[in-house]
Specification:
- It is a single chain.
- The chain has a six-stranded mixed β-sheet.
- It has one domain.
- The protein has six helices and six strands; from the N terminus they run H-E-E-H-E-H-H-H-E-E-E-H.
- The protein has 219 residues and is α/β, with parallel strands linked by helices.
- The protein is elongated, with a radius of gyration of 22 Å.
- The chain starts with a helix and ends with a helix.
- Helix 2 packs across helix 6.
- The protein is 31% helix and 40% strand.
């Protein structure tokens, strides 16, 4: 059994590194001078009844853009939501750029948006979820100690769409999406060893790179 363990783990490790990704982009009006004259905010859609776009994914997208260009300032999501409370809470957040225009008639909202110097708003809608699972594992305690034996596997899929709003023009200027999937494994010979496919991280890198290229145009 000991001689088979390294081979088993090596084989599974190679399988665990496999993540597939597809990206799509439809933009209508790319910035012509980069983001030097304004800031952008990335927000997660959380109005769906059956899921919320994960805050850590939103942070990942914002961080990817910030690290990719020193000229782009990304307002942290929570800071923005707190500054505009309660207008961007999940139940009251605008679902269209036209709704933002109606909010702008409120002096407090207009003043705060001007103070934050918001040029673009990016809404991220989607989630990461488990798609399938199989296998079994048995754990127990014997005379020589505790241990587990078995093998489990599960699939994970991330699907996210970014919608870009241009505040200066009061228009929706593009949509981008990323779909990634992968298979994770849990072999156990005495000790369970999870081999996790980086599905959500790959989605963040794919979608974040698309957005970075868009907002870096002309800079």
């Amino acid at each position: 059994m000991k001689s088979a363990l390294p081979l088993l783990l090596m084989s599974v490790a190679m399988l665990g590194g496999c993540v597939t990704a597809s990206v799509d982009e439809m933009t209508f009006d790319a910035p012509t001078a980069g983001m030097r004259d304004g800031s952008l905010v990335v927000l997660g859609r959380r109005h769906a009844p059956d899921y919320d776009t994960e805050p850590d994914f939103i942070d990942c997208i914002g961080g990817h853009i910030s690290r990719g260009s020193e000229s782009i300032y990304v307002i942290p999501e929570q800071q923005f939501v707190d500054s505009l409370y309660p207008w961007f809470e999940p139940r009251t957040a605008p679902l269209s750029i036209e709704s933002v225009g109606r909010l702008m008639v409120l002096p407090t909202v207009a003043g705060k948006l001007q103070e934050l110097n918001v040029s673009y708003m990016v809404w991220i809608d989607g989630r990461t979820q488990e798609t399938n699972s199989s296998g079994s594992m048995t754990c127990g305690v014997g005379p020589t100690g505790a241990g587990c034996f078995g093998f489990g596997t599960w699939g994970t899929e991330s699907e996210y769409e970014a919608t870009i709003w241009n505040f200066a023009d009061g228009a929706e200027v593009g949509k981008m999406s990323a779909l990634t999937s992968g298979q994770s494994y849990m072999p156990a010979v005495v000790v369970p060893i999870p081999i996790i496919a980086p599905v959500q991280d790959t989605a963040c890198e794919s979608l974040g790179t698309q957005l970075l290229q868009y907002f870096s145009a002309g800079s």
